[in-house]
Amino acid sequence: MSVEQSNNGIVIIGAGLAGWHVIDAIRAKDKDIPITLVTADSGDRYHKPMLTMAISQKKSAADLVRATGIDAAEAANVKLLANTQVTDVDAATQQLQLVSALRSDPVYTNYATIGYDKLVLAMGAHPIFPKSLPEDLVWHVNHIERFGQLQEKLATGSQHVAIVGAGMVGTEIAEDLLKAGHQVTLIDLNDAPLSQMLPPKATARIAQAVKSQGINFLGGYQVSAITRISDGTSEDSDGQLQVSYEALPSAAENSAAEPIEPLIVDHVIASTGLTVDDQLPAAAGVEFDRRTGIVVDASTLRTNTSNIYAIGDCMSIDGVPCRYVAPLRAQAATIADDVLGLDHDGYAHKPPMIRLKNKAISVMVTGVPKATGNWQVKTESDEELVMELVGDNDTMTAAVTIKFPVK
What we know:
The chain has 407 residues and is of the alpha/beta class. It has ten helices and 28 strands.
């Protein structure tokens, strides 16, 4: 059977939650249309948000896998090309160039080139590593494989972990590691956690709650360098790291001008945001912004290139990246209907409710929050803070409810 004949149909790039949701949605409507799933990893199905809670729960990477890629693909009647990179997209001929990580020379693979009728980009986003955070010395918790490697290192006993970035993920990981018995230092450019999305009054209360747990929070500081200062004494230990950091100008003005002693830690985790790789979007000719992702039509999730769609972390709607799990099922259902040529009402994007997974402090956000704007206090006490962001015409555009533990 030729490559062209064996690969007609729908091709999905990326086997994260978004990619598998698209498969589920298509198979709910059509059991037989050919689907090929291309992924750089094994394609195993797991729920990525669990990664920020799993260490304290003593769940291994294997525990989090709901189904292996092979089993899931067989159950869904999908051709799985695991451990495979897409190196080029030819939108004119509707073909993909592939290289298998297991057999790196495409001459020796039987799927060096595959065609598609419809292509779904579900490739996700990857962590940003500033120059001061060298990738060979810094962990991230954005994928189950790296999570599993970090967990093995942390299983040897209590260790000191520095987390760079106090957004939602960094703040969640900090509590998870603390509950697992580790010493945690959380470092952020801003004076308080979640400062990119909430007003100072709210984030100051969150910072207070984080510190009261026993987390060492360093707000208003920038990591300038990370260096390895000792070699590990066993296979499980890589040695210690020196984290040099400095106060930002605003913080430096309010502090003594004394030199800051570097931190000596066992591990550093980067939680400094996500970006979307531009290789495939550029090759496919789709409209794209490296910070926010692939631009799609808000109703159909089509890109500006014929027969190509995007979903999940790699896409944006109206200039806003879509990096939450809750809307994925509705997005996948829309793509399924559209690629199958079925009538549908179109995708109607609604900002999901955002919940911080920390147990020691409850943070719930609705609407489209931003740090600046007309935030008004609705309720304020030792146990609770409720604020609303009021926009034009006195309409509420976002709200935050923070509940603190009763002492």
